[in-house]
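hi support,

uploading two proteins for the ticket. first:
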Amino acid sequence: MDYSMLRFRRSLQALAAPADVQLQLVPDYLWGVDELAIEFDQWFQVMKRRRTIFSKKQRSILEDLNKKLDEISGPENLRYWMEDTVRTDIAWEDIRNLARNALDAMGWPRQETLKKSSEIPVKASYGE
């Protein structure tokens, strides 16, 4: 698995993780929670640009997840990006469930030891 696919998988695992784990993964600033969505979007776009082959089921789940994240984005939805909301709001439960479904559809583990994005080795470490 190449670096981009590893980062994509990690972004799904972060979105699938329990709220307390998610909050440990994000930067320690006010809107740090949005990094979960930004990272997923970034690597999902990379996968689409590379024309990664997803099954119909995989693509459907990934698009549903992307749509759900879009629905809670934007300045009018700032409340969704607060720590308490990540822990308690049904939208975040939906996101976690969609991410778990995506991992299952991809045949990837739901959890592994997750690190903050800033702690992940650079691309050269993966031999790409």
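and the second one:
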Amino acid sequence: MVVEQQRQTPATREVVCTHCERKIEIPATAMSVSCRHCHRRVIIEDLEIKTYHAVLRIATAGKVEVQKKGTLVADVRVNELTVEGSVKGNVIALDRVAVGKKGAIEGNVSCRTLAVEPGAKLNGHYRVDPAFVPPPATPREHADDEIA
């Protein structure tokens, strides 16, 4: 008798709150949750920006990908950011920022790792530190205009 081994997906995963920067354990399939520390809504889903998108702030504990024809005008607070198009605004990434050869970022960037392909355009101050711990979100960043 052959016994098939079933893959088990983890029931929970750990993310960092985009408001208070504390770790929270969430269900593996969650799209958004309420932080048990600061009681604010934490968006978990990944976002793709394919066209022009302008808001005050984007905050997600997931990934944001700005595609080749995409333009994002916003302050960005994410786990990971990939830029093939353009971003105009300050970026705080808890992990990685990657900028493709035709990508552009105009604004200050703070992250743990930065990958830049030849030909990318960068304009701003950059802080890249493997031990980077972002400051908690300021009250202005808690605006109701937050979008995901």
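thanks. also noticed: The longest strand covers residues 71-83.
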